[in-house]
Amino acid sequence: MSKDLANVCKYLTHGVYVIAVKNKEREHAFTAAWVMQVSFDPPLLAFSINPQHYSYQILKDGGQCSINVLAKAQLPIAAHFGDSNIRNKMTGYSWQAAPSGVSVLTEALAYFDCVVSHSTPAGDHEIVICRVLDAGILNAGVPMHYSDTDNMDGSDELYA
Question: Is 5-158 assigned to CATH 3.30.1130.10?
């Protein structure tokens, strides 16, 4: 495999998102870059989550989430929600309820209110397919791209 794989993968164009998950007892949020639309009818989005992540079990139990689009200038927010060492990540940020009741990051550019349709294993992650229940624009700005984060997630070391 090419030694340039880590750099070449940064040319894949995708944004940076905060995904909030909820079950009956808990809420949590994490940063994700692997999000995409997969269907117009019904409207479906897909994202990738590590099954070892704290949010994974909450998502599996609750079956609902919000996908919050970050702005280019919101790198500190991306870093905060990407830090696995913070247990109560949602404290200190402003949240509002989506129609389904899941939390939406008020500072985000836009959000999608979703319910999990199904999922499938994909290497060291799981692909989650969600049906969009609602969506809205919250703030003006330019969306952040994954390439704007440099090596914030430490992924350069994961490409052997």
Answer: no
